Amino acid sequence: MNAELIVLLVVVVTALGFDFTNGFHDTGNAMATSIATGALRPKVAVALSATLNLVGAFLSVEVAATVAKGVVNLSSTGGEDLLLIVFAGLVGGILWNLLTWLFGIPSSSSHALFGGLIGAAVAGIGMNGVEWGGVLSKVIVPALLAPVVAGLVAACGTWLIYRITHSVDEGTKERGFRLGQVGSASLVSLAHGTNDAQKTMGVIFLALVAHGTISADAPMPFWVKLGCAVAIALGTYLGGWRVIRTLGKGLVEIAAPQGMAAEASSAAIILTSSHLGLPLSTTHVATGSIMGTGIGRRGAEVRWGVAGRMGVAWLITLPSAALAGAICWGIAHLVGGLAGVLVVFAILLALAGLMYVRSRRQPVDHRNVNAEWTGRLEPDASPSELVAADATLAELTALDAELVEQIPGPPTPKPDTSAPADNVSA
Known about the structure:
By secondary structure, this protein is an all-alpha fold. It has helices at 3-37, 42-56, 62-70, 79-102, 109-124, 132-164, 170-211, 222-238, 241-250, 256-276, 282-296, 304-335, 337-359, 383-406. The longest helix is centred in the middle third of the chain and has 42 residues, at 170-211. The N and C termini lie far apart (109 Å).
């Protein structure tokens, strides 16, 4: 097995790793509102979403073609140089995905990937290494329009729903729309698979073209479709609970009618973009839809501070991931060859491990994802946890007192009964 083949294998594994992070980072796009309203139990929701992501990945390859041929200028590079650019871009995207997941920020996995590829291509080839026309028309413009269009559609849908059902009592309305959410959330998951899984397929296709395994005009190999579908489904099942919590509880206090409106809006826009081959950010669409439901319902609360932080993250995703991709390319190029790729891969594993360990200090999972939002990502301890902590503290205090009582005191000195020598009579 030669060095170039090993590099190709590392690139494919890294691409599937990105697909996995894409899955757990973007689960909230489909299921956050259904989990927040109680339409689906958290574990059931992620299992359903994973299954439909798996199915959706096989329905289209239009987005994959855009990623494979619309970001990196294939005529300006090839071979090992292109493999290194693809690898560095993937590492940059993964690192940004993990960092935003750690802070519970629903940023775009798509833009993280494109940013990483653009940064690595500029570092490795120069400005002519990027298809700027394709990036502008199929990445930048949709990124600006998607949340606005999704928000408007969801706001109108929410207003209509409440207008039509104003005479229905709240209990019946909630139950009915929770059932409707099961269908609309499922449609979003299916749509997510048709769009996001395709992006990693396109990246692996790029790597195969660089290695010379297939030509640029070849059809997408089935094993690439299957691998990407399974990777994103596994990531989705893991559940990106930190991002789910932000979308479901931190942005808008959402009710079931709003949740169904948001999901229906997201599904329609994502499926349309997949049909047109636009690698749209499903995160931007889902977030815009959720915000739109807050605007469309009278009296609903939109937490604009959380929305502002998310907006800042959206603005810096492309340049931040591009910087990470460029740095990774620089390190790999400096070390050189297979060793350079392995060094960057080791750095990726180390940083990923550190971020995972940090997340476990204050975990967010299916048990506390729906806890009341107090302005922090990590929820406060539940009453039962506080009672358990108080009981443990009381037990430790009692044990401490018992141990203190068992500590023997200092020995009592015996009186000295012997007379001094000069007082002894003859």
